Amino acid sequence: MDISRRAAIMAAAAAPLAGLAGKAAAAPAGAAGEIAAGAALAPRPPMGWNSWNSFAGTITEAQALETAAIMRETLLPSGYDVFTVDIQWYEPEASSYTYNSNPVPALDAHGRLVPAPNRFPSSTRGRGFAPLAQKVHAMGLRFGIHVMRGIAREAVKRNLPVYSARGVRAQDIADTSSICSWNPDMYGVDMAQPGAQDYYDGLFRLYASWGVDFVKMDDMSRPYDAHAPEIEAAARAIARCGRPMVLSLSPGETPVLRGDHVRRHAQMWRISDDFWDEWPQLEAQFTRLENWTPFRGPGAWPDADMLPLGRLALGDRDTRFTPDEQRTLMTLWSIARSPLIMGGDLRHLDAATLALLTNPEVLAVNQASRDNRPHFVEDGVRVWSATREDGTARYLAVFNTGKDARDIRVPLDLVGAGSKAVVRDLWQRRDLGRVQGTLVASLAPHASALYSLA
């Protein structure tokens, strides 16, 4: 059943992608080169921290540096190395998860968003994020920013000149009919207009001059075909900017049928809208991750979104996930090789959450496995398997998504482990002995188990 589902998705994905810009789908040689370039940028799922779940759009330079220092001590030793400042760092009056309806963002002379100096004082005199990025880099971390698709409405209102495009101004390239449904900051860019690519090239040259390593680009993946020209423009601009940058597209739900296109132009892409700490949202991610199986690999990571663990929502509460659900979240993201981007406030990081995030045997599944795939056994049960990167063992993840405790029986041969195996519980980090024929996992509701089978 799993094989037929994957075959159906692959067959559909191979069909012509009508409406996409640039005819890239018809160029297999170029496609191979683009995928290889992406693999060099993100050979394994990125790991890091992002400010959205903790700070909304309000993070300041002082808070960023405090958090980065904690990240260096607590998460960096386990491989979490991407530190990302999320949305509206350019908005002087950002105060919550609700956006100002008429924002006046900080801009440079060419209509490019720059950090609001009242929140990021080191950004004055045209320095942008360069001083903050330099300090983050000195901690051994990579520096990431969130940006919105398009050009600032304020730049269009002022009709500012486009960087390096002689005689072209913001109103010449803005598509004022292309707006984000949930954020009032930007207009889309009409990529058919002269100077449109120059605008994106200038944008990413600015980010390169700041020392940006990772760009989360929002309002991209939906509606996908309408935004495909700007997805391609961003990827092209990164290739020209002179600095390696990972491109992460947001939000979802990215259409699975556009998998071939998205994996050629980005290294991460969201498979859902914003993911928060509610069981129905976690349960829904199982099917989405299953559907993206054909497109997962080095440089191409379907992104189930950030980990809403620990203290969240401007400090108002801790995660609503139960301990079993938190482990299920980490198990699913690991076996499906979703990027691991912590969202909780690291200033309030507790021992249990830190242990959950840094179990080395679980992280090895996320970072060093292959052939990750779902198996379909029965209702209320989810089973995934993978192969250890060196081929010496199989990984097995078992989930009880139902409301009652149950014993889940998994035939070893179903998951490619042969007739018998030595079993190790990766969460408990202890050997369970030899199992023959069938492994039985006794799981509470919403609980999971993660094993290696050698």
TrEMBL record:
Protein name: Alpha-galactosidase
GO molecular function per UniProt: hydrolase activity, acting on glycosyl bonds
Ranges where the Alpha galactosidase C-terminal domain occurs: 379-453
Swiss-Prot/TrEMBL keywords: Disulfide bond, Glycosidase, Hydrolase, Signal
Record-listed E.C. numbers: 3.2.1.22
Stretch forming the signal peptide: 1-26
InterPro entries cross-referenced by the UniProt entry: Aldolase_TIM (IPR013785), GH (IPR017853), Glyco_hydro_27 (IPR002241), Glyco_hydro_b (IPR013780), Melibiase_C (IPR041233), TAT_signal (IPR006311)
Keyword Secreted: no
Keyword Disulfide bond: yes
Taxonomy, superkingdom: Bacteria
Family classification: Belongs to the glycosyl hydrolase 27 family.
Reactions catalysed, as given in the entry: Hydrolysis of terminal, non-reducing alpha-D-galactose residues in alpha-D-galactosides, including galactose oligosaccharides, galactomannans and galactolipids
Pfam hit, one: Melibiase_2
Source species: Novosphingobium soli
Alphabetized CDD domains for the sequence: GH27
